[in-house]
Structure formats: C-alpha cells, structure tokens
Design the sequence.
C-alpha cells in the first residue's frame, strides 16, 4: 500500500528556485513585457507549478540576495530558455541586477489592494490631462505592486516613472480585478508657485501702466497720416493732427482682495461725468426753490 505522502509527493510544497536574469530586450521586440509587471519563465517552471498546490493567480517574489532587494511580479509566458527568466528593465533596476545576475523566485499569495499612493519622478507627469486614467490603463499590464518600487508607464511614446510610496493593506499587494483607491504625491522637483511675489509683480506692472498713460497721451496724434490726391499733386495732403483728449480716461487697479461670492461697493471715489465732477454742477441746488404762480390776482389796496 502507498502512503498518503507517496500518493501526493508535491502537495504542500512551495515553488522556490534560482534563475539567471536577463532583460526583455534579449528577446527582441517585446514591448508588451517591457511596459508591464510580468515576467517570462521557462517551461520547466510551469511543469513544476502545475504539480504543486499553489493559489491562483500565480504571483512571485523576486529576491536579489546580494543587494537584499526584493520585488513582486506575475508571469506572462513560459517560453524562456531553461535556467533563465526575462524581466522588464525597470524591474532589474529596482533589484539592482545586471544581465545574467542570479535572482531567487518563489511563489507567494498577496492580499488584494485597496489603496496605493504614487509619486511621479518628473514634473512632466503634470502635463497629462487625466493622470488617473493614464495610470489605470497602464496598471492593466501589472499583477501586483510593491512598496518603494519605481514602476514605468508608457504614454504617448513617452515613459513616465512613478515610485510606489504606499500600499494597503500590506507592503506588497495584488491588483488583479480589484477596486483600488489611488492618490498622487507632488512630483520630484516640483515647487509651489509664490503667489505673493506674483501678486506684487502684477501690482508693479499696473502702476507702470498707469504712470505711462500720460506719456502715451502726449505722444499720440490722431489722423497723423499723409493723404493722396487723384491728380498726383502734394498740395493739401499734409494733415494737421490734433492731440487726443484723455482727461476723462483713468485706469483703475484691480481689487486683489476680492473673494468669490461677495460684492464690494467702493464709495470713496466720486463718479466722473465726461471729466467734470458732479460737485461743479448745481452746487447751490435747493429743492422747491422756484417761484410759484397764482390764478387769482390780489386787488390793489
């Protein structure tokens, strides 16, 4: 009779082995692998995994023991040469691996992601109109995320790198068929604009424009061009330009303290009517000060 262990010799064991690691460029044009978070393993790995009692989907932990760096990934195909695996270049950078370096692989079971926070590694990421939609589309090629990893996403023929700052509920999570909340940190090299300095510059520019209005009015001449006659003579073609009257034109300064939803009434400035103040018109006005008329005339005494 056979014992239980002899009938199922592989049950309960984990997949753990060491491979030579190479970048995807060694396989030729495989952009589908380079822009994702999945690797290519040899056929012998598939044969061994099918005989083990592992949990699907297949997720693996990659460990570089020399640098004590680790990451997590999924598997895309089992077509690599025996003893080799092919991984994206950004993953090799995270693991500090060179071409042909040794990496240990073991299967793991990860929790489903609920939250992830990313930090773009360049301010160029701010030029994207809808960054969350771009990130969601790029993460479809990933199987899991690892905290502190710097992933690469391609959009409009440009590669954007994002550092995984935080993941919940663990430092490594699965993102296959999950509803995950996403947040972004300020990109590396981003500086908040100095609104106070910008406001001060705008006020100085407005002051310069106000001071320059008088000079522009002095230099302006209306109808200062030269006329032409049908008979070709030059007599009477010289114009007599006149100065543009600009006494009633005044330039105001914007209210920089304006708040949306409020109305401000400025009562300190008197209205101007064609350049003449209202105080100069009817300064001695009195109501009902006219002379009345009577229908009956009084008799003479």
Sequence:
């Amino acid at each position: 009779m056979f014992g239980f262990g002899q009938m199922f010799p592989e049950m309960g064991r984990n997949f753990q082995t060491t491979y030579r690691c190479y970048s995807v460029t060694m396989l030729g044009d495989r952009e589908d692998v380079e822009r994702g978070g999945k690797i290519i393993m040899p056929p012998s790995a598939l044969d061994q995994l099918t005989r083990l009692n592992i949990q699907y989907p297949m997720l693996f932990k990659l460990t570089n023991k020399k640098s004590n760096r680790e990451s997590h990934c999924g598997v895309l195909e089992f077509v690599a040469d025996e003893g080799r695996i092919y991984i994206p270049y950004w993953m090799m950078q995270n693991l500090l691996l060179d071409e042909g370096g040794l990496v240990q692989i073991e299967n793991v079971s990860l929790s489903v992601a609920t939250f992830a926070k990313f930090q773009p590694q360049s301010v160029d990421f701010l030029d994207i109109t809808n960054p969350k939609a771009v990130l969601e589309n790029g993460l479809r090629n990933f199987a899991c995320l690892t905290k502190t990893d710097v992933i690469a996403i391609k959009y409009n023929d440009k590669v954007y790198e994002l550092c995984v700052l935080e993941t919940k509920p663990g430092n490594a999570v699965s993102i296959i068929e999950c509803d995950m909340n996403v947040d972004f940190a300020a990109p590396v090299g981003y500086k908040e604009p100095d609104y106070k300095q910008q406001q001060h510059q705008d006020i100085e520019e407005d002051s310069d424009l106000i001071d320059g209005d008088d000079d522009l009015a002095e230099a302006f001449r209306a109808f200062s061009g030269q006329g032409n006659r049908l008979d070709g003579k030059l007599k009477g073609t010289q114009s007599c330009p006149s100065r543009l009257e600009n006494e009633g034109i005044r330039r105001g300064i914007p209210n920089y303290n304006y708040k949306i939803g409020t109305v401000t009434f400025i009562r300190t400035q008197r209205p101007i009517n064609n350049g003449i103040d209202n105080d100069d018109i009817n300064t001695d006005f009195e109501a009902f000060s006219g002379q009345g008329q009577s229908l009956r005339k009084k008799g003479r005494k």
